[in-house]
Here is the input.
Amino acid sequence: MSDFKIEKIITIKELLKYQQLLHKVYNSEEIKRYIYNLVDSTRNPTKYSIETGKYIRCGGSPRASIFLGIAAKSNALINGRDYVIPEDVQAIVKNVLRHRIILNYEGKAKNIESDEIIDEILDKIEIL
Here is the structure.
């Protein structure tokens, strides 16, 4: 590690503690539904009137929903909360979905970016 000048910022014991804390972070049914709808809109864009959805060949799988939920909990924990708010989901959604949205040929030809699609999804999907 000294060759790369990497500094240790957390111990294994601290990491395990944070993993345990993560399991205690609350995710309401509304947040879970919001996460589901965000990911589902990548697979069923017409259901949610996502116009840029016509450029999606493959969207996020159910695992994307799971990891988005975990990432949102992590964001809440980092921000000192033991519960998830919509802003936690929104802060991390691009990092989770960006590589899970596979564009079709038309989307690639028009240089559409996954982030553009995610931005539209965020604009259209409401928190219930």
The chain has six helices and two strands. The mean pLDDT is 95. The beta strands are 56-58, 102-103. The longest strand covers residues 56-58.
